[in-house]
Amino acid sequence: MTDTRPLLTIAIPTYNRASILENALNVLLPQLNGFNGKIELIISDNASTDNTQDVINNIKIKYPELIFITYKQPFNTGYFGNFKKCKELANGNYFWLLSDNEHLSEGVIKVLMDTISSSKKLFGAIYFAEIAKSKQNKLNSNFEDFNIFETDFNSLIENETAWLLTSISSVVLLNDKSKDEVTVEELHENLFLGFLFLCNSLIICDKIIVINGKIYNSAPCKVYFDIFKAWTKDITECVNYAIKHQLLTKESANKFIDGYLKNNLQQLVFSYRIHGELHGKKYGTPKNLINTMNPYYRNNDVYRKTIYKLLRSPKSLLIMKHVLVKIKNRLKK
Predict the structure, then answer these.
(1) Contact assessment for residue 145 and residue 108, using Cβ atoms and an 8 Å cutoff
(2) Higher-confidence residue: 22 or 135?
């Protein structure tokens, strides 16, 4: 029997960011031309009070051929609840969740669809291993121009940049829902729900397609969730979940943790110490952050040698270091 489902579901959860959503859709939707019936778009509105529904209705009028599912939550369910609804509504063989502030580079959809269509194998995920840093970066839409290869989760996790798998917009998942309900119940409100769904897909099939290319840019916006809760309690739950389901060994889990401490959390802490906020949100004193992180990382060498030292250093010293780095970068240019 022929599978009539869309090949890909693209889902966008949104809340009170009508203009930001509209800008992202103006970049995305033209790339969907030519894929009628093969791509499904979902927008789940988390009970917005702005003109988000007007933006959605205009899309329906402008793109009548698009498989387009919209849902408006009866009340704000938070990021977890709105993401969960997107996954529940998805009908595609593969599922890709994008933020409403992400602008896809030109040609991404074609490359992704060519990659999925050209393979007769089943894959747990397709992973975009590089994100564009500049708004000027554009993708060439030729399939042959990309470094595309097959790997598995444990091979990928050896790389210290593997923490980027936690960025759900960088990962297209096999849309298997058999374990979703149990996962959602077990780890309710975990901010890395996307990584947990990735784990579920990899339990079905641990093979991954990696696409090296510049994929998207993120427009500046406020972050409403607790970043440091995410990178302590929530990510620890995810690592334990992956170990429990034999996706990670203790050794590979430690490499994964070292990777995100060194390449992500260290930069977040440094930025917070310099500016006193992250994406418009304040988290208290350095002592508050030490109390948040120590229970999870006090025995980790990377944490003790880098992050803990940043939290104990005088702010004036960090500002001086920040200025010197900016001067060096300008001289290089």
Answers:
(1) no
(2) 22
Q: Which two tokens stand for residue 256?
A: 């994964």
Q: Across the chain, which distance is largest between two alpha carbons, in Å? A: 68
Residue reference for tokens 């050209």: 118
66 contacts 183 by C-beta, under 8 angstroms? no
DSSP-derived secondary structure for 191-209: TTHHHHHHHHHHHH--EEE
In total, the chain counts a number of residues equal to 333
Give, in order, the Cα–Cα distances in Å from 177 to each of 43, 90, 149, 248, 266. 19, 10, 26, 21, 35
| CA 309 remoteness from chain centre | 28
CA distance 69 to 71: 7
Q: How far is CA 43 from the centre of its chain?
A: 17
Which amino acid appears at position 81 of this protein?
Answer: G
Spatial distance between the Cα atoms of 190 and 148, rounded to a whole number of angstroms: 31
pLDDT tens across 136-158, in order? 344 445 555 667 889 988 888 87
- In the block, which residue shows the tokens 């940049």? 161
Which residue type sits at 274? I
Cα dihedral across residues 29, 31, 36, 40: positive or negative: negative
Rounded to the nearest 5 degrees, what angle is found at the Cα of 315, between the Cα atoms of 312 and 321? 105
Phi-psi region of 11 (alpha: psi -120 to 50; beta: other; left: phi over 0): beta
Instruction: List the end-to-end C-alpha distance of the chain, in Å, as a whole number.
Output: 59
pTM metric for this prediction: 0.89
